[in-house]
Specification:
With about 130 residues, the protein is of the alpha/beta class. The protein has helices spanning about 30-40, 55-65, 85-95, 115-130, and strands spanning about 5-10, 25, 30, 50, 105. The protein is globular.
C-alpha cells in the first residue's frame, strides 16, 4: 500500500493580541516557530513544511529554519477572528496552482514547542490505519 502524500501547515500570523510577536519570540535558543518546523522535519512524515503567515519577518525566520513560504497570507485571512478554513483554502489553492497539491495535510501550531516528532509520526500512522 502506498501512503498518501502529506504536508505540514504551520499557521503563524502576526498581530497576537496577548503576546507581541509570539511566533518569533525566542524560547531557549530559538524562535518559537523554529521548534515546530524542526519537529515536522524530524518526524519524517511530511514531503514539505509550509508556513502560512502575513508577515515578512516571520516568513524570513521560517525559511531560515527550513520551511517553505508560498507567499504572504492576505490580510483578510490573518485577523484574530479569521477562521482557519480561510487560510487553509488559500494555501491549498496556491499548492494546486503550483501543481503540488498533497493528498493530506496536518496543521501544526507553533505554540506547541514541546510536541515530540514521535507524536506526529504516531498520529500519522494512526490516521493511515484508520482509513
Amino acid at each position: 500500500m502506498t501512503l498518501p502524500s502529506l504536508v505540514a501547515f504551520i499557521p503563524a500570523r502576526s498581530g497576537s493580541q496577548r503576546v507581541k510577536n509570539k511566533n518569533i519570540r525566542v524560547l531557549g535558543e530559538y524562535p518559537l516557530i523554529a521548534y515546530t518546523i524542526a519537529q515536522a522535519k524530524v518526524s519524517d512524515c511530511f514531503s514539505a513544511v509550509f508556513v502560512s503567515t502575513d508577515c515578512k519577518e516571520i516568513a524570513e525566520i521560517a525559511q531560515k529554519y527550513g520551511a517553505e513560504i508560498l507567499g504572504l497570507r492576505p490580510a483578510e485571512f490573518a485577523t484574530s477572528t479569521s477562521p482557519d478554513i480561510d487560510w487553509i483554502k488559500h494555501t491549498l489553492k496556491l499548492l494546486k496552482n503550483g501543481n503540488r497539491l498533497p493528498d493530506a495535510f496536518s496543521i501544526l501550531r507553533p505554540t506547541s514547542p514541546f510536541r515530540r516528532p514521535e507524536t506526529i509520526s504516531k498520529a500519522w500512522k494512526s490516521f493511515n490505519s484508520a482509513s
